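Page header: ASSEMBLY MODEL / two components / 820 residues total.
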Amino acid sequence: MNRVDLAWMAMAAASLTLGLIHLFVWVRQRERLDFLVFFVLAVSAAAWGAFELQMMRATTPAAWSAAVRAGHVPLAIFVVGTALFVRLHFGTGRMALLVAIVGLRVLTLLLNFTTGVNVNFEQVTSLGQAALWPGSFVAVPLGVANRWAWVPQLSNLLLLAFVADASLALWRRATPAARQRALLVGGAIVVCVAATGTMAALAVHGLLPWPTILMPTFVVVLLAMAFELSGDVLRAARLTTELAASERRLSAVVEATPSAILVVEPSGAIALANSHAEQVFGRTREQLVGRAVDTLIPERLRSDHAMQRAAYAAKPEPRAMGTGRELAALRADGSEFPVEVGLAPLRSGGQVLVALTDISERRRAERAAAQQRDELAHLSRVAMLGELSGSLAHEINQPLAAILSNAQAALRFLAREPAVLQPVGEALQAIVTSDRRASQVIERLRALLRKGESVRETVDLNELVDDSLRLLRSDLAHRGIETGVDLQPTLPTLLGDRVQLQQVLLNLIVNAGDAMQGLTPPRPLHIRTRSAEGRVRIEVDDRGPGIAPADAERVFDAFYSTKAQGLGLGLALCRTIVQAHDGRIGAAQNEGGGARLWIELPASAEGMR
Amino acid sequence: MTTGRVYVVDDDAQVREALLRLLQSVGHAVQGFDSAATCLQQLPSGEAACLVLDLAMPGMDGLQLQQLLQQRAPDLPVVFLTGRGDIAASVRAMKRGATDFLTKPVDDELLLAAVDEALVEAERRQGLQRRSTGLAQRLATLTGRERQVLDLVLAGRLNKQIAAALGTSEKTIKFHRGNLMHKMGVRSVAELARWVADAGLPAAPSGTKVQ
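Prediction written out in full:
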C-alpha cells in the first residue's frame, strides 16, 4: 500500500463519516432536505474516490476504461447533487439550468453505457506514468478523445454557471449570514468545478500528461458544505437557548403583568394562569390549570361565550373581547365581577392568550360620577323650578279656579226653586276635567323634583316639547313670549332619562325667553324637531341678540354667564346631561339673527320608523 | 240683586266656561271671548253690561284691552281677575277705572258682588250718558244771551251783578233767566246746578264767554 492508496482511502472514509453524521441530523429533522442531499453527495464522493484510485492503479487500458465508466455514476450523482444542494440550501438558482444539468448528466450516462466505450475516450491506446508526488507513480491514459466528450464538459460549465448565479443572488440579499454562505460554499464549488473541469478537458485531449484527479476537490467542496451545515446546527442550538431565555422572560412578564392572564387551549381548557389570575379568580394555579374556561363565566353568559369562542377560533386576531357586550367573570365564591378582556392568538396549536382586568373599581368610579351628575341635575332642577314657581303655581291655580267656580255654580243651580239639573251635570263633568289637569301638572312637577337614579326609558321628543310648553305656558304668556312649534310628525323615539332631557329643554326655552327680555312683545320663540341618519334633533330659536361665533363653545362652560343674576351652570349642566346620552349640544346664530340652541341625540333602535 | 249682561274674557277655556256657568246660575246673560282681540272684534254695543277680564293672556293682555276699551266702550265697567297677586298691575288697573281686582280662584260671593256693583255702575254710567245727552240737547235750544246768563248764574252771580256784567237791566236778566229755567226744565237754581254737575257742562260756544 503506497501513500496514494492511503490518501484516497482516508479521503473516502472522511467523506463517508461526514455523510453519516449529516444523515443522522436529517433523520431527526426530516424537513432539512439539504442534510440528506449532503449525505448522498458524501457517499457518491467516496464511491468516486474508490473508482479514481482504481484508475490510477490501472495496469491495462481496459482496466482503466472499466473504472472510468463505472465512476461516471457517482460523478453524475455528485454533479446533480451539488446543484440540488445549492438550490436547497441557498434558496436561489435557476430551475432551467438545474434541469439542463440533470439532462446532460443523464445523456452522459447513456452515452457512457450504450456506445461500448467510455464517454471520455473513443479509445485508450496506452497508459503512461506520472509522478503524483516524488516516488508515487500513477497511470495516465493516452488515446483518442470521444467526440461526445463535450456533453459532460458542458454539464460542468452549466453547473459552474448555476452555482455562480445562485451565489450572486444570495450575495445580493446582503445579510452577513447570506454573504458568508455565498462566499464559502458558492466560492468553493465554483473554484473546484472550474479547476477539475479544466483539468479533465485538458487530459481528455492529451494536452496534460497528468491523471484527472477529482477526489481532493470533492473533499474540499464537502468540507465547505459541512462547515456551513454545522453552522446551522449550532444556530439551532443557540436558538434553543434563546428560546428558553425568552420563555423565561415571557413568563416573568406574564407574572408581573397587573392583569390576569390565561392561556386557553382550543378545547377550552386553561393551559396557563399567572399569579394575578389566582388573585382575581380566587383560585390557585393548580385549580385553574386544566379547568374549562367557561366555568369562570356566569351561567347566563355561558352559551353566548361558547358561540363567541367558536367565532374567534375561526378568525383569530389580537383584539378586545366583546365590545359593547357586558362581560363578567365568576370568583371561586360565586360572586360576579365586571371585566375587560383582551385576546391574542398564540401561534402554537390554536391556543389563545387571554388578558383579563377586573374593572369593578372603574365601574364604581363611573357610578359615583353618574350619581354626582344626577344629584347636580336634581339640584339645578329644583333651583329652576323655584325660579318658575310663580308660573307653575298658576298652572295649578287655573284648574283650581275652574273647579271652584263650577262647584259653586252647581250649588247655585241646585238651590234654585225648582233646581235646574242639566248645568249641574255639565259643571261636574268640567270639574273632573279640571281636576285631571291639575293632577297632571302636579305629576309633572313631582317627576322633575324627584331625586333618584337616572332611568333609561323610551322618550318621544315631540311629547317632551308639548309637556315642557304646558309647564311653561303661564311663564311664557306672562313674559309676552309667543311660541311656534314645528314638530316632525313621525319622529323616532330615543332611550334616555326623560326627566333630565326635559330639564335640558326647559332650560333652553327659559334661556331663549331671557334672551329676548329687551324686545317689545310679542317675543317669538320657535321650537323644531327633526330626524336624520339615526339621530333626532331639536332646535330652540329666539330673536334675542344672538351668540357671537367666538362664544358658541364658551356658552357651555361652567360659570360662564351673560346674565347678571346667572350662575352659569345651566348650559354646562345641559351639556353634561346630553353627553351622558351620547348626544351633542351646540349653539349658533339662526337666520333671524337670534340664537339657536340645538341638541342631537341617537335614536333608539326600536325608535327608528 | 240685579241681573244683566256680563262678558268674560279668559284664554283658558276651562276657567272661562266655569265663570260663565257661575254667572248664569244667578241669571246673568253671558258671553265669553277667548282673547282680547276677539273681544274687541265681537263686543256688542248698546246695552248696559260689564266685563270680567283675565289679566295675563298671550297676545294682548287684560290691561291693554282695558286701555283700548276706555275709548271704544267707556260705559263698560271692568272687573279684573288674575292668577297672581300682581300689585303693580292692580294699581294700574284701578287707576284706569277698573271697578274691582280679584284673584283666582275667586269665591262666588266676591265675584257676584263685584259683578253686581259693576252692573249698577254700568246703569249709572248709562243714566248719566242719557242725562248728559238731554242736557246738551236743551242747551242747544238756548239763545246766546240765555247761555251767557246761565254761565253767570252757575258762577253764583246775583241778577244785579249779571245785569251789570252784560250791560243791561236787571229786569231783562230776570226775563232771560225765567226762559232758560223753563227751557232746561228745572225749577230751581240748585236743581240746575246738580244737573250740570252730574253730567258736566259743555263749554259755551266761543265768543259768547263773558270777560
